[in-house]
Amino acid sequence: MQKNNPFFYKILIFLITLFTFLGSSFFVLGEENAAVYFSPSSKNVKPGSDFKIKIEIDPKGKGISSGEINLEFDSKALHIIDLEPGDILGQNPIVGIKQIDNINGKAKYALARTGKTSSPTLLGVFTIIKFEVLKTVQIGQTLKIELTSAGLADENFREITNINLQSAKLKVTHGFLIYYLIVIVLILILVAVFVVRVRKKRKSQ
Questions:
Q1: Domain count of the chain?
Q2: In the predicted model, is pLDDT for residue 131 greater than 50?
Q3: Model-level pTM?
Q4: 23 part of a folded domain
Q5: Cis ω before 59 (30° cut-off from 0)
Q6: Buried b or exposed e, range 113-127, using 16+ CB within 10 angstroms
Q7: pLDDT per residue over 84-120, tens digit each?
Q8: 96 near 108, Cβ under 8 Å?
């Protein structure tokens, strides 16, 4: 009777382990990463004004039961007035953390769903942020609101890793400049029409 070859079993175990690793790696690489980003990602603002900007989550086929975001901004140019829950975690989500630091330009916001989490969760709004643009901000200045980190938990309350983050850029403009330009153009058009009519009347006389 032939004895078992230990070398053969070692090779077999190695091949099984290798194929298992490659298969799981291929599966992970085939998944798309969840994304957390500002909407809109760019916006024109004016000194002394208020504006709202959303943070949206694209789960990429996963369920979302809770989330936490950390953001930073220029406190010499912007102040946060309030953060409100969006629709991605359903109605009346639990507010776990709501920290606004307008001195250091930081904010942290954490929400959790109250009911059962279905998978996949559809793309939706995590929070709506109301900002104030300070009156001292210079025209032409570019401001950045940066998402420094985000944490998400899936339908089984497991951490979702490798989240793609996207920040937002704000361009400070003179809010009434376009309005003035439009008014000036309209006045010039009316003047031109009036001049043409006057000339036609003179020629007809």
A1: 1
A2: yes
A3: 0.71
A4: no
A5: no
A6: beeebeeebeebbbb
A7: 999 999 999 999 999 999 999 999 999 999 989 989 9
A8: no
Classify burial at 83, counting beta carbons within 10 Å of its beta carbon; exposed 0-12, middle 13-18, buried 19 or more. Answer: buried
Helix, strand, coil % (nearest 5) of the chain?
25, 40, 35
| Residue 155 included in any domain | yes
Residue 150 corresponds to which tokens in the numbers above?
């985000």
Angle at 49 between CA 88 and CA 36, to 5 degrees: 25
Show Cβ contacts of residue 173 under 8 Å, excluding neighbours closer than 6 positions: 44, 45, 46, 139, 140
CATH of the domain at 37: 2.60.40.680
- The span from the CA of 6 to the CA of 10, in Å, is 6
User: Phi and psi for 199 in degrees, rounded to 5?
Assistant: -65, -40
142 is a domain residue: yes
With beta carbons less than 8 A apart as the criterion, state whether 146 and 73 touch: yes
27 part of a folded domain: no
User: What is the residue range of 93's domain?
Assistant: 33-181
Judge whether residue 166 has pLDDT over 70.
Answer: yes
